[in-house]
Each structure stands twice: as structure tokens, then as C-alpha cells.
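Class, look over these C-alpha cells:
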Amino acid sequence: MTTHIEALKNSIPDYAKDLRLNLSSVAADTTLTPQQTFGGLLAAAIASRNDAVIAAVSADAAAVLTPQAFTAAKTAAAIMAMNNIYYRFVHLVSDPEYGTLPARLRMNALANPGVEKVDFELWSLIVSAINGCGACIDSHEKVLRKAGVSAAQVQQAVRIAAVVHAVAVTLETDAAAQIAPEAAAA
């Protein structure tokens, strides 16, 4: 495991020690290429919105990814942050008319993400899983499977999403719990 992610792992409290093992596991797994793994870790960290997780993963991802891949992972997180909200609304709203209307949202990055299309799709799937957009999850999974990506590779991408998000939530919860006793005493 890389230095910053190792330090992040060591900051996980004992009550969540399974996450330490899972973080080590997803970072070291060879089901995906190193670019797919570290781009996925970066996209997941950004989607999870935890400064400590973003900083640790960014530092280690920068050592593995090309500048183009690093930017593409950030682009996947940014575009999916927008798309996941929009398409989750279209998917969940009762009125089917919204599904017939053009989105009118710029998504030019999808056409030329700067990395292999499969890698960008994996990263988009990871962010969509974290953001809970069923329509986007289905769409990216279908594109990946059509491109020859195995179920095990798709599963590994979603494992990255699950673990990174859980680490982010745990660290935020633990930080808030540290503040709560101080606030109660004041």
C-alpha cells in the first residue's frame, strides 16, 4: 500500500477496523489495472467529500497516474456529481415527461475524457454508486459489460466505492464525536 493511504488506514478508529483491512484490500487488488484502481480511488475520495481522504488518496494517486489520468478521474467525479443528481431525479420523479426532455447540461468531457473509455466509465460507475443514482449505475455497467469488462472488474470498482465512502463517513463521524463532548461541556 502507498504511504498516504497507509497513514489514512492507520487513522481509522478501532471500532471500524474492518475498514482498515478493506482499504488495504481494495488498494492492493489486481483485478483492475493500477490506473483503474488509483483513478477509482481518487474519484471515490472526491465523491465522498472528506478532506483527509481526498488528500491522502490524491497524494498516492499522483504517484501512480499520469497527469491526464489524474485529471480524468477528477473530471469523472465532477461530471457525475451533476449527472447523478439530474438523472436520479428523472428516474425517481413520477411524471415520465421529464425523461423526454433534453438534459441541456454540458457533458463534453464524456466524449474525450483523456483516458481509455473503459477507465473513465469505471470511475463514473464508482461515483454513481456513491451518489446512489440507479439510472447512471445501470448505464455505466451496461457500457462496461458491452466493452468486455468482467463482472469481477465491475464488482471491484464498486468495492472501491463502498470502502472509500465508508472510510470517509467513519472519519467524519469520529471527528464529530470528538467535538461533541467539548460542545456539551461548554
